[in-house]
Specification:
The chain has about 200 residues and is of the alpha+beta class. Helix content is about 35%, strand content about 20%.
């Protein structure tokens, strides 16, 4: 099947589009970040290990299909964050799309173990929380993130690591990531203005 023949509702097309979008918007560094979505029959589609390609370079044929037990079904070696993605999709709760990225301002807040103040209407649908320092790709990180999601979070800041957003819809997941980054920027600007009075 050629690129022109690809069905635009194909989750592979959507995932590659999201990867390029978050890269273009500066919401992750070129070698960082991973995305997954749930597929029928207890499988997930996930971006590959960064040894393969960066998010901005991905093509539909570069993606990995993995079972919820972690078995590689198709494609290259999956992202090192596979345990976290499996844990989130296994917990379900309508979170069909998972993005782990490194938006600079949100990462700065996470590194300082600080959450922005939610004082703006535009950020009202964000339900964010913070997970303390855990090893990337570890089961410990996966469990901590799932716990926050079960408590109602849709955006989780990871100390010294990045951000995870979850949504039932692909584009909404990107919007959540953008909204969180913008909230962090605005919150920082507000604090700078207050301190200069």
């Amino acid at each position: 099947m050629t690129h022109l023949e690809l069905d635009m509702t194909d989750p592979r097309v959507t995932l590659v589009s999201l990867a390029k979008k978050i890269s273009e918007k500066g919401l992750t560094i070129s070698i960082g970040g991973n995305i997954s979505t749930s597929l029928p029959d207890m499988r997930i589609l996930i971006t590959p290990s960064k040894q393969h390609k960066t998010l901005s370079e991905l093509d539909v044929n570069d993606l990995s299909v993995v079972s919820l037990s972690g078995e590689l079904i198709q494609g290259p070696k999956p992202s090192a964050e596979l345990p976290m993605h499996i844990a989130i999709h296994s917990a379900a709760q309508g979170n069909n799309w998972v993005i782990h990225a490194h938006p600079p301002m949100a990462v700065a807040y996470a590194s300082e173990k600080t959450l922005p103040e939610q004082l703006f209407v535009e950020s009202s649908r964000l339900r964010f929380s913070l997970v303390g320092l855990k090893s990337p790709g570890s089961e410990e990180l996966a469990k901590a993130v799932v716990e926050k999601i079960r408590e109602g979070s849709n955006a989780i800041l990871l100390e010294g690591h990045g951000v995870v957003v979850v949504s039932n819809y692909a584009n909404d997941a990107v919007l959540l990531l953008e909204e969180l980054e913008n909230l962090c920027k605005t919150d920082l600007a507000r604090h700078i203005l207050k301190s200069s009075r």
